[in-house]
């Protein structure tokens, strides 16, 4: 599998091992896991061929994840890297290929209210990340019906101890006093505790024949108002959610200006706001999980509130769960 150095990938590798399988990970840097490890990059053909040799299944999580950056960088890693891995896997006789995608591949800025997985559409996505992930998902799903079973899983807003994406960014802004609500904070959003996402991805390996050619959204199935979700994450780290908010139209307009400025200056650090982020924090995004539960034979085992408790314990001790 790829992407095991991140919070989700690490949890997926450990879960698959607990399920009785032997895991090999392809990494740019050491993961610290006890499984077999190959240091390399998904843009390196030789490294990929060595990694897939003798493997029965591939779980592909590695990606360039950033709110900013050059399109060519996203294309090289997320699209061409996935193409390289697909081709090498097919040539090596891999029988199952699970692509870990994102609901953003089908996001045009409109609300998603109780929907299932909509088709990936690169033409309507709002960021280089989402567009490249949509392109890659389409590449994967076109392999359906071949000797290699393929599926795409889209975990929504994954968080938990050790998260360097959602949690780290929210807590960093809370610590600096720059965290603000967008609009009323009442928009309902789904999120996914990391253990649940890992269990679902591991289950997809066992159900690959059933889900061949499908894209499935994964979440806790507990939509919460944005303000409540942010408050729970902040409280876990010992911060209060600020009461001051920014009107939605101001955040969107400001985000558009920041997008233009960051692109013009080719800045790589995280911007304070983007148009996409303003839309995500002010628009409902929650998904019908019934089909996902049925096809994967999986349901979440850690509730949002229990997840907040585990995250708080991790912050108190500074140790993994």
Helix content: 40-55%
**Unreliable stretches covering 5 or more consecutive residues:** none
Q: Bin the strand percentage.
A: 5-15%
- What would you say the CATH architecture is? 3-Layer(aba) Sandwich
Physical arrangement of strands within the biggest beta sheet: 3-4-6-11
Radius of gyration: 19 Å
Main pleated-sheet profile: 4 strands, parallel
Oligomer: single chain
Query: Mean of residue pLDDT?
Result: 91
Taken from the alpha-carbon principal axes, the silhouette is: globular
Total helical elements:
12
CATH class: Alpha Beta
C-alpha termini separation: 23 Å
Structural class: alpha/beta
How many domains make up the coordinates?
1
- Give the CATH superfamily: NAD(P)-binding Rossmann-like Domain
Question: In a few lines, what is going on in this structure?
Answer:
This protein is an alpha/beta fold. 43% of the residues lie in helices and 15% in strands.
Kindly describe this structure.
The chain is α/β, with parallel strands linked by helices and 321 residues long. It has one domain: NAD(P)-binding Rossmann-like Domain (Rossmann fold). The chain has helices spanning 7-18, 45-52, 71-91, 128-141, 166-176, 194-206, 208-211, 226-236, 248-265, 275-280, 290-296, 304-317; strands at 24-27, 36-39, 57-60, 96-100, 112-115, 149-155, 158-159, 181-182, 188-189, 192-193, 215-218, 224-225, 245-246, 285-287. It has a four-stranded parallel sheet, with helices on both faces. Helix 3 links the parallel strand 3 (57-60) and strand 4. The longest helix is centred in the first third of the chain and has 21 residues, at 71-91. The protein is globular. The mean pLDDT is 91.
């Amino acid at each position: 599998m790829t992407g095991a150095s991140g919070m989700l990938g690490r949890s997926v590798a450990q879960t698959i091992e607990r399920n009785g399988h032997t895991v090999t990970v392809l990494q740019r840097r050491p993961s610290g896991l006890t499984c077999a490890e190959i240091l390399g990059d998904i843009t390196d053909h030789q490294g990929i061929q060595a990694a897939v040799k003798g493997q029965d299944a591939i779980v592909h999580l590695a990606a360039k994840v950033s709110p900013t950056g050059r399109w060519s960088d996203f294309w090289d890693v997320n699209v061409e890297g996935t193409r390289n891995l697909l081709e090498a896997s097919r040539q090596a006789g891999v029988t199952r290929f699970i692509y870990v995608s994102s609901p953003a591949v089908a996001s045009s800025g409109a609300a998603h209210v109780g929907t299932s997985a909509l088709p990936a559409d690169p033409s309507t996505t709002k960021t280089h990340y989402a567009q490249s992930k949509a392109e890659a998902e389409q590449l994967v799903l076109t392999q359906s019906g071949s000797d290699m079973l393929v599926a795409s899983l889209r975990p929504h807003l994954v968080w938990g101890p050790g998260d360097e994406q959602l949690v780290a960014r929210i807590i960093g802004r809370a610590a600096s006093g720059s965290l603000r609500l967008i609009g009323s904070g009442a928009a309902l959003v789904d999120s996914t505790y990391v253990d649940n996402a890992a269990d679902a991805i591991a289950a997809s390996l066992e159900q690959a024949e059933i889900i061949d050619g499908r894209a499935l959204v994964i979440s806790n199935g507990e939509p919460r108002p944005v303000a409540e979700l942010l408050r729970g994450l902040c409280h876990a780290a010992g911060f209060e959610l600020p009461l001051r908010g920014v009107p939605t139209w101001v955040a969107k307009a400001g985000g558009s200006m920041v997008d233009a400025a960051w692109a013009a200056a080719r800045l790589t650090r995280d911007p304070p706001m983007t148009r996409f982020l303003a839309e995500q924090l002010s628009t409902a995004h929650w998904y019908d999980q019934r089909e996902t539960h049925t096809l994967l034979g999986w349901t979440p085992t850690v509730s949002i509130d229990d997840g907040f408790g585990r995250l708080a314990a991790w912050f108190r001790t500074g140790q993994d769960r």
